C-alpha cells in the first residue's frame, strides 16, 4: 500500500502551490526588473536572526539597508539572498513574510534556509518512508522538495499508543479527538506506520518537544526504523540535521539553544544506550556546501540580470559578502568557503565584542547591518 494518504491531497496541493516559485526559472519580468546599468560584480548573503531580525522585529536599520539594494522604483539592482540556518516553513512562504517585514519584494529564490540542501537528497529518498522533525511545517517543507512518503514526527507519534509516557501532561499536543483516532483513515494510517520501517529522519527545524523527539528518534535509530520492535544491532537509518547551531539570538536577552544543542542531547543519550555511536550529517552553515549553494543561487539571480544564457562554470562574482552575527557559523563558514567570500560580522546578535572575534576573526566588523551595507556599497562604488 502506498503511503499516499499520509499526505492529503489538500496538503500536497497547498505545498506545491506554496513552493512552486522556488523551482520556476526566474520570470522574464524579473529579468527585466534586473536589467539596468553596469552589472555589479558582487553579491550579498544576509544571515537573518541577530542581523536583520530579533524575533520578528527588524533590527540594525535592516529595512533601510535592504531598500538600498533596489532602485527608486523598487526593482532589485544588487543580487542578494538570505542565507539562514532557520526554517520550518517553505521558502516561498518565508519570502512573503520577509517581504512584509522589510517592505521590499523578496523572491522565494532569495531565501536559502538550513534545510534547503535536503532537496539534493530527493533522488535517494523520493518514495522512501521518512520522518520530518521540527517546528512549523516540516513535512510540508519536505513534500514540497519532492519527498513523497514523509510524515511529521507529530503525526508519527500519534500513530503509537503510549510512545510518549508524558503525552497526557503536554496539553499543547493533545489536540486530536478520540473521533480522529477511531476514524478509518487514521486506523489505516496507524497500521501502515507501525509496520513500515522509517528509512531516514530529517531534523528540519528546531524540535518543539525535546523529550518526545529524543525518545522517538532513539526508538527509530536503534531498531532500524521500527519503534516497539526488538532492539538489535542493525544499520542505523540515516539521520540529517538542517544545521548544527549550538545557540542563536532570538527575542530573549541572552542566546537560546539551537539545533546543535538538540543534537548533543540526542547524541549523548543515544550513545549511552547503544553500542555504536550516533551517525549523522549536518547541512547548512558553516558547511562549505551551504556557501557553494549560496554562490550558485546568487549566480542564478545574476544570470538573469545580464543575459538569458547561463554562465556555466564561470562565476560572475569578484566578491561575495556574508553578513552574519555568529562567528562560529557565519564567519567560520565564509572563511572555509574561501574566495570570493568576504565576511562581515555585526554586533547585533551573538557577537557583541568591541574588537574582532578571537577564534573566527571576520574580514570586517561593524555595529549593524546598515553599516555593513554602507561599507559594501561604498567599496564597490555603488552607493
Ligand atoms: Mg544569526
TrEMBL record:
SUPFAM superfamilies registered for this protein in UniProt: HAD-like (SSF56784)
Organism: Nepenthes gracilis (Slender pitcher plant)
Protein name stated in the entry: Uncharacterized protein
Cellular component aspect of the GO annotation: mitochondrion
Pfam family, any one: Hydrolase_like
One of the GO biological process terms: glycerophospholipid biosynthetic process
N-terminal signal peptide: none
Amino acid at each position: 500500500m502506498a503511503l499516499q494518504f499520509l499526505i492529503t491531497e489538500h496538503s500536497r496541493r497547498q505545498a506545491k502551490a506554496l513552493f512552486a516559485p522556488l523551482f520556476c526559472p526566474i520570470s522574464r519580468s524579473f529579468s527585466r526588473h534586473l536589467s539596468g546599468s553596469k552589472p555589479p560584480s558582487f553579491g550579498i548573503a544576509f544571515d537573518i536572526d541577530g542581523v536583520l531580525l530579533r524575533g520578528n522585529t527588524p533590527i540594525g536599520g535592516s529595512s533601510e539597508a535592504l531598500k538600498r539594494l533596489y532602485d527608486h522604483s523598487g526593482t532589485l539592482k544588487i543580487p542578494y539572498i538570505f542565507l539562514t540556518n532557520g526554517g520550518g516553513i517553505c521558502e516561498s512562504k518565508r519570502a512573503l513574510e520577509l517581504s512584509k517585514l522589510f517592505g521590499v519584494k523578496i523572491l522565494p529564490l532569495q531565501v536559502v534556509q538550513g534545510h534547503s540542501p535536503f532537496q539534493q537528497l530527493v533522488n535517494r529518498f523520493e518514495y522512501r518512508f521518512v520522518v520530518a522533525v521540527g517546528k512549523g511545517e516540516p513535512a510540508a517543507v519536505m513534500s514540497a522538495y519532492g519527498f513523497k512518503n514523509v510524515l511529521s514526527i507529530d503525526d508519527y507519534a500519534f500513530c503509537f499508543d503510549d510512545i510518549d509516557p508524558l503525552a497526557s501532561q503536554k496539553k499543547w499536543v493533545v489536540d486530536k479527538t478520540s473521533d480522529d483516532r477511531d476514524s478509518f483513515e487514521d486506523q489505516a494510517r496507524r497500521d501502515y506506520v507501525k509496520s513500515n520501517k522509517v528509512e531516514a529522519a530529517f531534523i528540519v527545524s528546531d524540535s518543539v518537544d525535546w523529550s518526545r523527539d529524543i525518545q522517538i528518534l532513539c526508538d527509530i535509530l536503534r531498531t532500524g526504523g521500527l519503534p516497539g520492535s526488538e532492539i538489535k544491532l542493525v544499520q542505523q537509518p540515516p539521520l540529517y540535521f538542517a544545521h548544527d547551531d549550538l545557540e542563536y539570538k532570538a527575542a530573549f536577552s541572552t542566546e537560546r539553544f539551537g539545533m546543535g544543542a538538540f543534537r548533543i542531547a540526542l547524541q549523548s543519550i543515544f550513545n549511552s544506550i547503544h553500542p555504536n555511536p550516533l551517525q549523522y550529517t549536518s547541512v547548512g552553515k558553516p558547511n562549505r556546501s551551504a556557501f557553494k549553494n549560496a554562490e550558485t543561487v546568487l549566480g542564478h539571480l545574476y544570470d538573469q540580470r545580464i543575459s538569458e544564457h547561463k554562465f556555466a562554470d564561470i562565476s560572475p562574482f569578484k566578491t561575495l559578502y556574508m553578513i552574519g552575527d555568529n562567528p562560529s557559523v557565519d564567519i567560520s563558514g565564509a572563511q572555509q568557503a574561501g574566495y570570493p567570500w568576504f565576511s562581515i560580522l555585526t554586533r547585533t546578535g551573538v557577537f557583541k565584542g568591541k574588537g574582532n572575534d578571537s577564534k573566527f576573526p571576520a574580514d570586517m566588523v561593524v555595529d549593524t547591518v546598515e553599516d555593513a551595507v554602507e561599507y559594501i556599497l561604498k567599496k564597490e562604488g555603488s552607493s
